[in-house]
Design goal:
The protein is 49% helix and 15% strand. It contains 27 helices and 18 strands. The longest helix is centred in the last third of the chain and has 41 residues, at 490-530.
């Protein structure tokens, strides 16, 4: 919204380039602030406000202009810059601005549509995120520069706003370390860049300090509405404030991300004082950041309200279906965002995080006492609630919760009954602290944090599992996460399919690894009772060494690669299958104890059979008595066959690779040991022992 006041329609409003110049600056400023309603033409006021509104969008950013038409030399490129908007279309641009001026007191808004978080570049063409002022029947000038001039920046929102200004005739053209250039309705204007106060999660605003061609020092600022509202000039009219707030609330209910725009002309004396203080703060040895921020904050006061912008951050493909799927799978989904409350709630409904008919508990408290009262009421009302419930909390209330242990306990009690939680106006540090609160307060919970921007990094690193989404916000989140995905919809498959299979395979691999070693070497424990605990080994040294590295390496490896207990189609169809998998039953103590008990049993039975057959000097076919090596080889052969067959009974998925790996292992042991049987010079203790063991029926 370009501001309140003024009137007329697109048909009876005439934009005059000289309207502002004809009016006295102080009178226009009075009208712009809404404190004076006499003496100045309303169209001039709207033109004045709209002009600086577009200047703010065109200059207050950290974007980089990118020319698709590359010039061969600097002079040619300067010509391209100068004519980037001109192109014989100046009359259409003026009509466009005239239509926008007529709507300045109505519903003009800079809105964008795009797929935040999807892959691709930050190009602001019509295929991605674009911005424009909307007016039925107004000339479309979007084709003037997108084919020549595009923007790239750290934030898609900044790119969108800069493109909106370009589409309305205020095209940011070029920048250097100390200058900014803008093509304003065909005229190239150069501004001296004095300072850039970049956006941070704590400041929630961004400013640029410029020196115009006439020597005026001007500050353009944009930021969150609740931050900017306290920095407006005290003479800002109440009607103008109320109308702007009304539009912001309307945008928020539609799920749009809003910003307030303002500016001020800095008197020369004030700028000299600021420059001196800021230079001194910048060179301070202690408290440098705090002193610099204090200087910035003092300058960013008494702003003239220009209007508000609203940007649509579209949900990615299949986000509602994914959230619904995760909730059916027994996963509690929370949304932690820096957007305002109305926007966050609207997104919650559109993403199916919050369902129609659910009670919504709003926790908005200025003081800790009010926060405690709200939490007590909510806990008493919903302490035994077992249906859908949504809890919405803002950043200020969350600050009280995180700083007070009693409030934190009450908050955890409440959200443990909730189906969905929405935290809005939250800083990156609060995101991480919120994850830490859940990790510490809720026993046995596993937290996963997913985000696509740099402000999500601390939250991602704090959670047990971090997932980063590659998108327009950059790759900081993906680089700092445990897993990286392209779109949010891939999270469902990552958790319920890959997560389930990985859990199944890892649990089976760990349990089987303990089982096979305990089962194979248990006969050695029993043999100690018959050897006087002399440390004499009943197993062949070569077979013992090759047991894990050769004889039983392929079957567990194939198990860990291919094992699955349900098809992917069944998991997609029945997300409730994840509930039991997430309970951790495969790593339960009783299951581990069962595997170990089975191993002791199988090892004991192996030793018992061997002792019953050869332990008392069993006769071979040639009349000789079996000795220690024959006895040990009998235990070894039975042990390897038993552990392989146990894995075969445990395996659910059989394909040709599993078959080959399983049965070829048994055949390899048989032929390898038989070959060792004939290599007397290399293994004298087993010379013809295996051949002798195969002969009597007792072996089989």
């Amino acid at each position: 919204d370009a501001g309140g006041g003024g009137g007329g329609s697109a048909d009876d409003t005439h934009y005059d380039d000289d309207a502002v110049d004809r009016a006295a600056d102080e009178e226009i400023m009075a009208r712009v602030r809404g404190t004076n309603t006499d003496g100045v033409d309303g169209d001039a006021v709207l033109a004045f406000r709209l002009k600086h509104f577009l200047y703010c969008m065109a200059l207050c950013h950290t974007n980089v202009a990118d020319f698709k038409v590359m010039a061969s030399d600097d002079d040619t490129k300067a010509t391209v810059v100068h004519n980037v908007v001109k192109k014989g279309m100046l009359s259409r641009i003026k009509k466009k601005v005239a239509a926008a001026s007529a709507l300045a007191g109505g519903d003009i808004s800079a809105t964008t549509g795009g797929d935040s978080g999807s892959g691709g570049s930050d190009d602001d063409t019509s295929r991605s995120r674009t911005a424009s002022t909307s007016r039925a029947g107004a000339p479309n000038i979007a084709e003037l520069d997108p084919d020549v001039l595009t923007y790239k920046g750290p934030s898609p929102d900044e790119v969108a706003l800069c493109a909106a200004a370009r589409n309305n005739g205020f095209a940011f053209a070029a920048s250097s370390s100390d200058t900014l250039q803008a093509n304003v309705r065909g005229t190239l204007e150069t501004f001296e860049l004095l300072e850039v106060f970049e956006f941070t999660s704590d400041r929630r605003r961004m400013s640029v300090l410029l020196r115009c061609a006439d020597g005026t020092v001007r500050l353009y600022t944009k930021g969150a509405d609740y931050i900017m509202s306290h920095r407006l000039h005290v003479r800002t009219g109440s009607a103008l404030r109320a109308r702007t707030v009304e539009h912001i609330n309307e945008f928020g209910k539609r799920g749009l991300r809003t910003l307030l725009l303002g500016y001020r002309d800095v008197p020369p004396a004030e700028y000299r004082r600021f420059e001196k203080r800021y230079r001194k703060a910048r060179s301070a040895m202690t408290g440098r950041a705090e002193k610099m921020e204090a200087c910035r904050s003092d300058l960013e006061q008494h702003l003239t309200l220009l209007g508000a912008t609203a940007i649509e951050d579209k949900l990615q493909d299949r986000v509602p279906e994914t959230i619904e799927y995760l909730q059916r799978a027994g996963i509690n989904v929370w949304m932690i965002t820096g957007d305002k409350q109305e926007t966050a709630i609207n997104i919650g409904y559109s993403s199916r995080l919050i369902r129609t008919g659910w009670p919504v508990v709003r926790l908005n408290a200025i003081t800790a006492a009010v926060c405690r009262e709200l939490l007590m009421e909510a806990v008493l009302a919903y302490g035994t609630w077992d249906a859908g419930l949504a809890v919405v909390i803002d950043g200020e209330t969350l600050l009280h919760v995180l700083d007070d242990a009693r409030l934190a306990a009450d908050f955890v009690t409440l959200v443990s009954r909730a189906t969905a939680v929405v935290a809005c106006r939250v800083t990156p540090l609060q995101k991480a602290r919120m994850v830490r609160l859940v990790k510490v307060a809720v026993k046995g919970v596993v937290t996963l944090a997913i985000g696509d921007g740099a402000n999500d990094v601390s939250m991602i690193q704090e959670a047990h599992v971090g997932v980063g989404v590659y998108g327009r916000e950059g790759s900081q989140a993906a680089r700092s996460a445990d897993f990286a995905i392209r779109q949010f919809k891939h999270l469902a498959r990552l958790l319920t399919v890959h997560g389930r299979y990985s859990f199944l395979r890892n649990a089976g691999l760990v349990q089987y690894g303990l089982y096979k070693n305990l089962a194979f070497f248990t006969p050695q424990v029993w043999f100690a009772f018959f050897s006087g605990f002399s440390a004499q080994s009943v197993l062949d040294d070569y077979v013992s060494s090759a047991f894990n590295s050769i004889y039983t390496v392929a079957p567990p490896f194939l198990f860990s690669v291919f094992e699955r207990d349900a098809s992917e189609a069944a998991i997609r169809r029945y997300p409730e299958l994840h509930v039991r998998a997430a309970s951790g039953h495969r790593f339960a103590h009783w299951r581990m104890a069962a595997w170990l008990a089975t191993a002791v049993l199988h090892g004991s039975v192996t030793f018992g059979f061997a002792y019953g057959t050869y332990g008392s000097g069993g006769m071979m076919l040639d009349g000789r008595v079996g000795g220690l090596r024959l006895f040990g080889l009998f235990c070894t052969s039975i042990g390897i066959f038993v552990v392989i067959l146990k894995l075969a009974l445990t395996t659910r998925l059989w394909n040709w690779l599993v078959h080959v790996g399983m049965w070829s292992t048994l055949l390899f042991y048989f032929f390898a040991t038989l070959g060792e049987n004939y290599l007397g010079p290399l293994w004298p203790p087993l010379y013809f022992v295996f051949q002798a063991a195969l002969a009597p029926p007792a072996f089989w």
